[in-house]
Design goal:
The chain has 2 helices and 6 strands, in the order H-E-E-E-E-E-H-E. By secondary structure, it is of the alpha+beta class.
């Protein structure tokens, strides 16, 4: 699709889901759902819309959380929420959003950075990720195709959540045991 066929987020916000979200428990490694690729979803299906609302609700009550993927709440699906608003490392910020069936279409300017994860609560690790990213996906509720161009911390968060949907943890991306650390701060 050309850039003209994408409306970005088009002003989409989680309120567009029009259903209340429920807070779900977050699963931790080594739960099998975290190491299986999630299935593609119908972004207009009622269960996808509810899952999207639940991801946003769970993310909002979790201190320090900037993203949450369906496998982290025990669901094999390619759906995730991201919101880096107010994070000190964020440069480009699209606000709170949910994407379905997202994929990276362009990744450049690779840089290492420290990552943590609610599903790996006691560890952090150094992961090399693209600091400029183009992602395509679909909005829950409408199924509208979107194309996001982002950078820096938001790009890192998107890659982390897309990895979850593919059955990967940040630990699968570290250079080795020397790049894994005991978490020192719990938010």
């Amino acid at each position: 699709m050309s850039d003209e066929e994408y409306a970005g987020l088009g002003g989409w916000t989680p309120e567009a889901l029009a259903v209340p979200g429920a807070v779900r428990p977050v699963v931790a490694a080594p739960q099998p759902v975290l190491s299986r690729p999630g299935g593609a979803v119908d972004p207009t299906a009622a269960e996808t819309v509810q899952l999207a609302a639940d991801l946003v609700a769970t993310m909002r009550v979790s201190p320090g959380c900037v993203g949450l993927a369906a496998p982290q709440v025990g669901v094999d699906a390619q759906v995730f929420a991201v919101d880096v608003t107010g994070h000190p490392k964020a440069v480009t910020v699209h606000g709170a959003f949910v994407l379905c069936n997202a994929r990276v279409v362009e990744a450049t300017r690779w840089k290492p950075g420290r990552e943590g994860c609610m599903s790996v609560p006691d560890l952090t690790g150094d992961v090399k990720r693209a600091s400029r990213l183009v992602v395509e996906g679909e909005l829950p509720g409408t199924g509208e195709p979107v194309r996001l161009v982002t950078d820096g911390f938001e790009a890192r968060a998107l890659q982390h959540e897309i990895d979850h949907c593919a059955g990967l943890l940040f630990l699968d991306r570290v250079a080795g045991a020397h790049a894994v650390y005991q978490r020192k701060v719990y938010l």
